[in-house]
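Our consortium's second objective concerns turning raw sequence data into structural hypotheses that experimental partners can test. To show how far this objective has progressed, the report includes one record in full. It was chosen at random from the queue rather than selected for favorable results. The single chain below, 80 residues long, was entered without modification.
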Amino acid sequence: MREALAIADTILAAHVIVIAFNVAGLVLIPVGAWRGWRIVRVAWLRLLHLALLAVVAGQALAGRACILTIWQQDLVDGHR
């Protein structure tokens, strides 16, 4: 059962990273474009940011919780 909680903690960490990436991108991409930072022009990075935002928006429009939230909750509930 400890393994399930360790996996749930790993999923939580991944979730926090995804959220931080999305929020940071919303701020850093426009600021970086204004300041002339080359990193904000990296195509795969911007496409990844856009894809993650699209997934989050699609789940919200569908009325579904994030898949990472569901997986984590299933692991925690299975431990109880």
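The partners drew two points from this record. The helical segments are 2-35, 43-61, 67-79. The CA atoms of residues 30 and 67 lie 28 Å apart. Both points have been shared with the crystallography group to help prioritize constructs.
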